[in-house]
Amino acid sequence: MTQPVLSGSIQRRLLILLFCASALLAVLLYFVVQSVARQVAQQSQDNILAASALSVIDSARSVDGEVIVDLPYSALSMLDSVTDERVFYVVRFGEDVLTGYAELPRPPLSKARQTAYMSADFLGEEVRIASVSRSFSADLGRDRLEVSVAQTLSGQRQTLARSSRLALGVGAGFFALAAVLAWLTARATIRPLDRLAASVSRRGPTDLRPVTAAVPQEMAPLVTSLNGFMSRLEASLNRSEDFIAEAAHRVRTPLAVVRTKAEIIQRHIRKPENKAAMREMIGAIDESSRTAGQLLDHAMVSFRLDSLAQEKVDLASLVNDMVERLRPVAEIAEIDLVIVCSDPATIQGDGILLQNALRNLLDNAIKYSPADTRVEIRLTKGDTGISLQVCDEGRGFPKAGDADLAERFTRGDNVHGIVGSGLGLTIARDVATAHGGRLILENNAGGGACASLFFPSS
Amino acid sequence: MRKLVFSLVLILVTARVAAFEIEDHSTFGPKQAQEVLRILSTTDTAIFAPMIQSYLANNPDTFIDYTVASSTDVMGAVLQQSQPFDLVISSAMDLQTKLANDGYVQKHVSGVTGALPVWAKWNDMVFAFTQEPAAIVISEAAFQGLDMPRSREDLITAMRRNPERFRGRVGTYDVRQSGLGYLFATQESRVSETYWRLTEVMGSLGARLYCCSSQMIDDVASGELAVAYNVLGSYAFQRSDLDGIRIVLPSDFTTVMLRSVVVPKTAPSPELAGRFADHMLEQAHSNSGNFDIRRWLGPSDGAALSRINLGPGLLVYLDALKRRAFQKEWTNAILQ
Ligand SMILES: Nc1ncnc2c1ncn2[C@@H]1O[C@H](COP(=O)(O)OP(=O)(O)OP(=O)(O)O)[C@@H](O)[C@H]1O
Ligand SMILES: [Mg+2]
After folding, report:
1. Is A364 found in the same domain as A244?
2. Closest ligand 1 atom, CA of A406?
3. What is the rounded distance in angstroms from the CA atom of residue B48 to the CA atom of residue A168?
4. Cβ separation of B325 and A85 shorter than 8 Å?
5. Measured at the alpha carbon of residue B77, what is the angle toward residues B331 and B180, in degrees to the nearest 5?
6. Both B249 and B112 in a single domain?
7. What is the CATH number of the domain that holds B163?
8. Which of A150, A397, B30, B149 has the largest CB neighbor count within 10 A?
9. CB neighbours (10 Å) of residue B238?
10. For A397-407, b where at least 16 C-beta lie within 10 A, e where not — what string?
């Protein structure tokens, strides 16, 4: 059988695709989780800063027309409660700096927005700044009082490092899970294909029924064309068989008619030379008829050998049937068919072919033996294998063990005008070989030929 | 109004131009040594020398230059950034924190600093190596016939009951002059209202105001003062030469100040500075020897200790407006 030409694997391609998709999603998830965490961390820091700035602005009051800001202790200490942070603040009234770090950057505040945030670098470190403002009246009139509070980011960085580790864990976990699912998916996707392949290859050689098991939609075209292909194959095989049977019939029938006519004519012929010519003619007709029969048989055998059936064949009953069928022919030739030994034996194979092989052996034995002789049939089962032997008391093979006799159209020089085509042993040998056995041709010590089919026990 | 506004920045600018006055200067170790460490400190040489010597015992090839100045001058020197000091040691924990917060100090991380308790370090920049309580120093003679006060409440009662005995004989820090006095006062006012009542009682008795702990201790010992409030306990405990004084750590709460060390950004040899700082911290926190960090806390160690927190909270009372408001309130209470 020729190996199929491979180009990739659907399962592998599917796996790679799914893996890539999961990796992509995992990376995406990592970034999403991280950015959410960053936002949350930023938000909570902003809230604390705003609370601090509000507590400062709430402490402002006007004393004797002067703005007094009584910085609450907690306003700055609360910014340092979890992690050590550097803290900066500035209080502005209008454009004047009342107290604090005058250079601290100023988030853009407006009338509409009372709270603003920004990130900036201050005194060598990145800080987050929150500003709150409200209008305030002092002796100089009404103006905006604005408080900015800033804080370094070590706590936020700590939170981010933690959430980044978490995000990494989530991403990796997601990928692992997705990879397992991808593998299962790929396998599940491929399974119907595997099942179809298995069910087709499990079939017997002659089982050409269409596939009826349910298959996924995507495989329907494949199954449809497979079924179509098989039905065409079955039709063509049936045609060949029909043709063989038809051809045999078509050739044999006219020959039989011709032969009958020739015999009738021969009876009316007086002249001895004409009579002889007529006999030759009848002989030639027999030969043609025989050859046609054997050729078709041989063709049928070759055809069946191509896809050997594997049924259990009971050899003993097969032998018995065949002997009974040939017994009338043998009686005409006054030959006694005797089943000497019939061990119970079965063999895995094609019963019709085995019948054919045995018929040819028996046919030879009857044909090449004189009248009043016995043909002995032995079916024996031993340690080495099964042997089916047909022995006669006739002239024997011209040369014992001559395997050439089994070649096509080969006949011995001992036939002395007996009609034949030289295909009988060929059929027997081919059948034996197809069943893992062989054909053995021997001569009996007391005269006569012995042909046997031997099937060694595997 | 603008001229009334003192911004902290202005104070710092004045500090910047102020002269840097050296109170004491000494050197340790061989002059030709490979490594030179320059320390600027508010701690008296005599007190700190054993620490330097214990370091030199293990690292003989080091030359150590030790300069003593007032805490304001120490801060000014660091702000000026022209004096190449490797280590700055100060009792003014608020100023040390301010220096660190404002970016004049570098981080120092080591195995030793990693093992420190949380309260003893801030931002890997400020490291505490002492705990020094604010104590009440009492003249035993002046309290004859009275119960020894254990708490502020006891002291208030004693002074109220015997005004004639205490008039003009009560001493405390002038928080307008002394940074340490201001630190103690602000932290106590934050913790308890008792502080203000006590200050008012002291004010009504014509309290005398001091710049420094040692003078208060001397005056109590000489009998000039009956009681001195918020004296640096570490100084008092060291005056074993004086009799007749009693050092009381108030049982309601004892304010504890932390002396600290920082490595300035401008340190010429920060690596050496780090090693020396580690040595100091190890000595202090190993709970043994001369520098055990609990040596001045006495048996009162525990619940009553109110340790001043290192951190940005200290910046609050350095705020110019806040300082002005506090000093005004305090002056009203003490000068009646
Ligand atoms: N039982 C037998 N005794 C003697 N010779 C035999 C015997 N069987 C076969 N042979 C010899 O082997 C030759 C080949 O036999 P084979 O059966 O193939 O051909 P065939 O009998 O001549 O023709 P057919 O095809 O019609 O059977 C025969 O021609 C014959 O010479
Ligand atoms: Mg034959």
Report:
1. no
2. 18
3. 51
4. no
5. 30
6. no
7. 3.40.190.10
8. A150
9. 15
10. beeeeeeebbe
Q: Give, for all 336 residues of chain B, the pLDDT tens digit.
A: 343 334 444 444 444 444 578 899 999 999 999 999 999 999 999 889 999 999 999 999 999 999 999 998 999 999 988 888 999 999 999 999 999 999 999 999 999 999 999 999 999 999 999 999 999 999 999 999 889 999 999 999 999 999 999 999 999 999 999 999 999 999 999 999 999 999 999 999 999 999 999 999 999 999 999 999 999 999 898 888 888 899 999 989 999 999 999 999 999 999 999 999 999 999 999 877 778 888 888 665 555 889 999 999 999 999 999 999 999 999 999 987
* Class of residue B19 by CB neighbours under 10 A (exposed 0-12, middle 13-18, buried 19+): exposed
What is the tally of structural domains in chain B?
2
ipTM above 0.90, yes or no: no
For residue A88, is it within any domain?
yes
Are A290 and A419 members of one domain? Answer: no
Beta carbon of A397 within 6 Å of any ligand 1 atom: yes
For chain A, say whether B2 makes contact (Cβ under 8 Å). Answer: yes
Domain-embedded: residue A264: yes
Q: How far is Cα B121 from Cα B102, in angstroms, rounded to an integer?
A: 16
Please check whether residue B309 lies inside any domain of the structure. Answer: no
Q: Please tell me the distance from the alpha carbon of residue B16 to that of residue A173, in angstroms, as a whole number.
A: 58
Q: Ligand 1: which residue has its CA nearest to atom 29?
A: A411
Whether residues B179 and B222 share a domain: the answer is: yes
Note down the domain range covering A431: 308-458
Q: Domain check: are A298 and A319 in the same one?
A: no
Instruction: Out of A306, A324, A339, pick the residue that ends a domain.
Output: A306
Structural domain for B293, as ranges: 2-131+258-298
